[in-house]
Known about the structure:
This protein is an alpha+beta fold. The protein is globular, with a radius of gyration of 19 Å. The protein is 26% helix and 23% strand. The longest helix has 15 residues, at 61-75. The strands form 3 sheets. Strands 4-5-3-8-7 form a 5-stranded antiparallel β-sheet, with helices on one face. The chain has a two-stranded antiparallel ribbon with strand order 1-2. The chain has one domain (23-206): 2-Layer Sandwich (50s Ribosomal Protein L5, Chain: A), CATH 3.30.1440. It has 4 helices and 9 strands.
Amino acid sequence: MAIEVIICNNTILPRAIPEKFNSSILEQSNVDKILNLWRSNPMLIPRIAKVVINISVGGSSERLEKAVKLLNQLTGLEPSTRRAKKTIREFGISRRQPIAAVVTLRGSIAYEFLKKALSAVNNILKENSFDNYGNISFGIREHLLLPGIRYDPDIGIFGMDVAITVERPGYRVLRRRRCRVRSIPRRHRVTKDESMLFMEILFGVKITRGR
Length: 211
C-alpha cells in the first residue's frame, strides 16, 4: 500500500519512513537494514529527481509530430525532439535526423503521471527494470492503457518508455559548473535494493523476478 508523499524542491519522497514493511521481493532482514539506514539520516532517504518520457518513432516526420502532440496532451509541457547519432540504412534513418520526442517531468507533475504510468502496467515492475544505481526504466505498450485516455484518430496509438531518476540529497553538487567533484561516492549512491523498496513504499508496486 502506497504512503503519503511530499514534494520538496521538485523531488518526490515519502513523508515518513515506516517502522515495518513487507517487500514483495527483498528478504525481511534486508528491508529492516535499509529502513534503519534511512531513519538514521534524512540525507540518505532516496527521492525521485525526475521522470523522462520518450516516444521513438524512427524516421517518420508525421508520426514524430503526432508523438510531440501526444506528450503535450499528457503532460501539459512542450516536448523536445531527439536526433539520430548515426545513420542506420536498414531503418531508413540518417544521422542527425529527428527520431524521438522526449519530455522531462519533475515535482507534482511527475508524481501524478507516475501513478497513471504504473497503473498502466498493473502496478508491477520487473527486477531487471532497476539498474545498479537505483534508476528505473519500463515501457508502456500503448498510451491508451493510461487511465482516463481515449483514442484520438488524429494521433493514433503510441508506446512509450518511462525512465525514473532516483537520487539522494546532495547529487546536485555534481551539476555545479565549478564543482571539482567528478562523481558521487559509492557509499552515497542509491542501491538497486533501496530503489526497489523505495518504489514499493512510495507507490505500492509489486516487484517480480520475471524477464
